[in-house]
Each structure stands twice: as C-alpha cells, then as structure tokens.
Amino acid sequence: MCGIVGYIGPKQAAGFLLEGLSKLEYRGYDSAGIAVFDGEKINVTKTVGRLAVLKDQLKNNMPQGQIGIGHTRWATHGRPSDVNSHPHTDCTGNFVVVHNGIIENYLDLKEKLIEKGHVFVSETDTEVVAHLLEEYYDGDFEGAVKKVLAAIEGSYSLVFMTKFDPDKIICSKKDNPLVIGLGQGENFIASDIPAIINYTRRTYILSDGEMAVVTKDSVWVMNRQGVPVSKKVFEVNWDAEAAEKGGYEHFMIKEIYEQPKVIRETMSGRLAKDNSEIIFDELKWTKEDLVGIKKILITACGTAYHAGFVAKYFIEQLARIPVEVDIASEFRYRTPLVDESTLAIVISQSGETIDTLAALKEAKRLGARTLAVTNVVGSSIAREADHVIYTWAGPEIAVASTKAYTTQLVSVFMLALYLAGLKEAIAPERMKELVAGLKNLPAQAHEVLDDVEPIKTFAEKYGFSEDVFFIGRSLDYAVALEGALKLKEISYIHAEAYAAGELKHGTLALIIEGVPVIALATQSDVYDKTLSNIKEVKARDAVVIGIGFVGDKQLEKYVDHTILIPRTEKYLAPILSVIPLQLLAYYAAITRGCDVDKPRNLAKSVTVE
Fold first, then answer.
1. How far is CA 408 from the centre of its chain?
2. Which residue, among 188, 222, 132, has the nearest Cα to 6 in the 3D structure?
3. Taking CA 502 as the corner, what is the angle to CA 496 and CA 504, rounded to the nearest 5 degrees?
4. pLDDT of res. 239
5. What residues are labeled active site?
6. How is residue 236 annotated by DSSP?
7. H or E element: which one contains 242?
C-alpha cells in the first residue's frame, strides 16, 4: 500500500513529486523519497519518517530536472530506515525503481546477483529489481524491463527510470494499482488518483500484465510480449476527497473491498507452490525449536482479541498445542501462569496498542518466548517481540478494523499449519488440501463482495433495531463476536454475541418478537445443533438471518433470510463469513446516518491505558 508518483514534462519534476506524495499521505507510510534526473545523473533523496522530513531535507537543495519518480513506503521487507526507503538504485546509480507490492522470489534472485558481483545495501525485496535492470540492460531499456518482469514473481506496481534513456519512464503492474495521468506536453504516474487529480482528469488505468512507456508527449501501453493494447481514457469525476477513497463513500467500505487483495498479499511467498507446506522465512523454526513449549498464550485487545480467539481453534485442532486466550488489559493483573514453557503470541494491527505491549513485556519478564502478529514494521510491539509475523494489510484508515482482521486470521491460520507441520501433527495430504483452500480465498472473497444488495436490504430494514443478537458454535461463535463488535462500533446498535449452545442458560430471555438474530452455520461438526438453536429463537418469533454456504437448502428452511458464502474448508470459513458481517455493520451505520470512519468516542490505535 505504498504511494508512487512519476512525472515527465517541461516543468521541474520535484514540485509535482512532493505534492503528489502529499496527496497520498492518507495511506500512511514510514519513509519517503524522490529521484530526479538532472541531465547528467540521477539524484536520489530519501529518508525515514513523514513527508515533512523529506521536504525539510530538500528545502535548500531541491533537485533540478524534468523527469522523476517518488515514493512513500509502508514497510514489508526491511525495517523503516533511510537505506530501506525508496527509490532504490543499482550498483552504479544509473537505474532507479520504486515499487508497491511484494517480490516473492527476491531472495533467490538476490543470491544469484550477489554471485555476479552486485552489492546490495538494503534489506528490501525491491532493491533486487534495480540490480536486475542493471544486469539485463544492453542498450535497450524496454527490453531490459521486459526481462525483469519475466524474472520476478509476486505482486507489484513498478516504475523504472534510467539516465541512459532520459526521455521516458516505464511502468507496469500486477495486483497493485497504477494509473497514468494524461496531460498536455506532460504525463503523470501514480499509484492512486489523488496524486494527479489537480493536474488532469484524463487517465489510463493499467490492468495486470500491462506495461506502459511514458514520454512527455505520449503513452504507449503494451502487454509483456510487446503487443500494443488499446486503452480507453477514464475521465475522473470524483472530487479530491472522494479520490482519496478511490471513489468509495468511506474508507471503511474501501478497505472491505481491498480484502481479496490483502489476503493474497499476506499469503504471498508463504505458501509452497506444491501446497506441501507453509514457509515463514521470518521464523525458520525447526521441530527442535518447539521442544519444551507446553502451551501457547494469545493476548490482544478488541478485534485482534477476536482474531486470537479464532487462532485458539486453529492451533489446538491442527497443531494440538493447548492455547489460552486472554484480554491484554486483564493479563498483567491476574498473576498469570506463564514461564519458559510458554509461547506468548500478541496480536495488534498498529503494533502500538499499549495494553498489548505491556502484556508482551510481562510475558517476556516471566520467561516466555514471544511472537508478534502485527501490520506495522518497526512498531513497538514488533521491536519488543522475539519473532514477528507481518500481516501485510497495508494502512487501515477507518477506525473499525476490517482488512486488518481478515489478514490476522490468514496469518494465524498459516501459523497453525506451520506449527502442525513442524510437529508432524497433520498428514501431508491434509496439509495440501488446506493450503489449496488458502489459495482459493482471494477469489472467494471477491465472490462474497460481488453481490451486496441483499445485505443492503437487510441493513435498511433492520437498521433501526435497538438490539441485535449474533449466535454460532465453535468457530462460528468466534466470528459472531467480531460481527457484534463491528455493529456496535459504527452503528451504535446494542449487539451481543452468544455461543448458541448457551441459549437455554439465560440468553433466550432476551429473544422477543421481531428482534434480529444473525445465526452463523458454517461448521459441519456442530451444524445440526446450530439448526436446533435457530429453531429455538424462531420459536420466540425472532427474525433470523442465516449465514451459511452456497447450496445450503437446509438452512433456508429455518431462517427468514440467508447470506451465503462460497464453500470452503471449515477452518477457512471465518475469513469469508466475517465479510458479510462487516457489510451489515457498514450499511446499518449508513442507514442510521452515523460517521462510519470515525465512530464516536473511539480511536484507531489505543496508546494510553
């Protein structure tokens, strides 16, 4: 979710680059940089920190030149630092590149380039692209870029520049956005429309696999084989604020729709091609590393706590290790039974949640080994933990967490499989089935998002209810907790989640005529019992919305409405079934006229106790 800009034309490039990057500040980032060709050499200025730090560095030394590229970074490979910031150059400084995405095979490529004498200075996956460009260049800039694109694997928006061909910028994309702004005698490149909206409304939106050669007077778009592609001009009619949201009304709905992409990126490079295993280069544990671990403690707050609750099911059922889940704000105050035989896992989107950080420090003090699951490289929790798994969700602007939660679920499921593989607790064929199921998730998440009209209808019909209840069993109960939290957070409807089997123990007293009940029924081993619980609330005249799998005719018999998700493994169902619940909360909030992105009394990251 990095920000990318590029300019070629008659004006000084640096001015546009800095202004364009400032329009992408809403995306969040940890470093910034620009590269400008002055007629003799490419001048690169980059620094860790906000854009203001870069502007201060350039205040009395603005690079001169009419072609340049710029970048704001959200770290994935390599901590935030000056040297890890983009743009990246080759050994000679004659080639420069900016990148959004993940190069999955960068380690293999890096080793081969080092053998050929290339010297690397950063920890990033992106630097390998600049060195590849140097390696392949034989006087043909376009040809070298095509060879680079053929060599790399993963997701990317890439923009290339070289002093040897100073009249053009080349760019390409796969699974990450890239737009070209069409001007008069000048052209612009950006990862998002806000960067160029003050300069032009006429754009080309690049599609996956396309490559564009951009000069000041022309834009040639082709596929990787060099065959020209006819592009339609997309006229942007959004205002600047809407442009930041990609045309969506709110950041929350934009981030909900980003989930297929970020799920794919979180898995990127971590799934064996033959589906045989999970690859965590950041852990590299062996079976011996698990010797002495008798239990796992998971601690977190809010949505991340709910992800930990799901993780308990994953790890216990797949890796067969006992798991305890604790609210981080309670952990320190109950004299926890933690010692050297404990693996403590903390989950935090921001990596700065104060209670979770305190719980992490306490677990370490008591002797536990620690592992963080977080979205922010270089955050306090990432620095404090012994090991880190990054979720690669990109910046999340809306207060209510959506894509961060689903990437947390993907990450902890991969961790459960990873542990199960190390312990040999899972048969190889079963491992392959589950990894194959993971690979299907992005496409299935797209399916869920393709038809939201029924969800809008439900939200409009029941959006003014005073109470809503969520029920489910097993993993469905864990997802129900998150669904209820989302509804409370942004619509201010009183919502509660209950384990469906507990209805007879008091909860049924709350079920009255017309009260909406969201019933999740995706877990086959408790499916019949869940249906029985649905009948219980229907007998009290509740209005029941059932969440189940496509083709579930049985569920349809006992509920008033259904929302159906693609069939998948029972363990993976929570990653899909939560998406309709996010949408229900969003559209209920819209119905009630609530401030979706900034709900009252709440902050994105809780950094005070």
1. 9
2. 188
3. 110
4. 72
5. 2, 604
6. P
7. helix 240-244
Q: Which residue has the tokens 């199921």?
A: 437
Q: What pLDDT, in 10s, does the model give residues 150-199?
A: 999 988 999 999 999 999 999 999 988 899 999 999 999 998 888 998 89
In DSSP terms, 228 is beta-bridged to 222
User: 171 and 6 in contact (C-beta within 8 Å)?
Assistant: yes
Nearest-angstrom CA–CA distance, 410 and 311: 10
Average pLDDT, the chain: 92
- Domain hosting residue 522, numbered range: 451-591
Kind of pairing between the strands at 42-48 and 88-89: unpaired
Residues β-bridged to residue 73: 31
Co-location of 439 and 488 in the same domain: no
Q: Which residue pairs, CB below 8 angstroms and at least 24 apart, start in 459-464? A: 459/583, 459/584, 459/586, 459/587, 459/588, 459/590, 459/591, 460/587, 460/591, 462/516, 462/543, 462/588, 463/491, 463/493, 463/587, 463/588, 463/590, 463/591, 463/592, 464/591, 464/592
| pLDDT of 252 | 94
Q: Identify the CA nearest to 15 among candidates 34, 29, 41, 38.
A: 34
Indicate yes or no: pTM above 0.85: no
Nearest alpha-carbon partner for 387 in 301, 293, 475:
293
Whether 474 and 442 map to the same domain: the answer is no
Same domain, yes or no: 279 and 188: no
Q: 280 near 392, Cβ under 8 Å?
A: no
Residue 363 lies in a domain: yes
- Is omega for the bond preceding 177 within 30 degrees of 0, making it cis? no
Domain count, the chain: 3
Q: pLDDT (tens digit, 9 = 90+) per residue, 278-316?
A: 999 889 898 998 988 999 999 999 999 999 999 999 999
Q: Burial-class residue 588 by CB neighbours within 10 Å (0-12, 13-18, 19+).
A: buried
261 lies in a domain?
yes
Q: In what order do the strands lie in the sheet with 387-390?
A: 323-327, 295-300, 342-348, 369-374, 387-390
516-520 and 295-300: which strand pairing?
Answer: unpaired
d(CA 445, CA 455): 15
Beta carbons of 146 and 226 less than 8 angstroms apart: yes
Minimum mean pLDDT range among 193-197, 489-493, 504-508: 504-508
Q: Which two tokens stand for residue 57?
A: 């560095």
